[in-house]
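User: Teach me something about this protein's shape.
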Amino acid sequence: MPINILICDDTAEDSAQLTEALYAYDHTFNIITYSDGQALLDDFPELKHSIDILFLDIYMPGLDGIKTAEKIRNERRDIKIIFTTTSNEHYPQAYELFAFNYIVKPVEREKLYRILDQAIFEIRRDTSQRIRFSYKSTMHSVDCRDILYIESRNKLLLFHKTCGEILQCYGKLDAIEKELPPESFIRCHQSFIVNAAFITEMGENYFRVGQVAISISKKNLKQAKEQYYAYLFSHMGKGLSS
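Assistant: First, the predicted structure itself:
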């Protein structure tokens, strides 16, 4: 899957040079450029679920890079924000905004490419743990590790999250099952998929997730229990300190 990159820099020459360096690294990148922070924020609701990396100049007229980053962080905490600027004096502010990195211009390709290596590694690792779906023109991007279980009801899929929120979309459980990490999600019923990480009890024909008992159908009983035992075995001892 191509990496989506956004550059926001009011200096056209700097933006062009960075774009050239990025394409030299990987010609499959999807790159969008903006010349000011406010224009970026105006379009961000449509972009926020697709952008992976944001290169953000700090010194821009109007809304500077720091203020732009603050507003973006309120919408997406996982975008890799890389500040590009002519001074290192804003490094503490960048740190507070959980910036992925900070490059002082002119951008050195060797350093840029080292940063990209790490950023792309993390993006691809994290993407494998995310699921995307839309409902009534709203796109959702959900970390699978935040899903307790998924329920199929009246042609809707209900995603029960750890925070108590329930998201929904139209679809079939068979299709969504193929997009989930198979080592941690267990199909236990025609209408339920459970995240093994949140199972607190396994009964004769049910899994308990918090206060909810989720049935294990006769058809899925053997496979579901074997998969749960395999999950427990693979996680045995993890998190224990010596």
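Now, about its shape. The first helix runs from residue 12 to 25. The domain at 132-234 is CATH 2.40.50.1020 (OB fold (Dihydrolipoamide Acetyltransferase, E2P)). If you'd like, I can walk through any region in more detail.
User: That's plenty for now, thanks!
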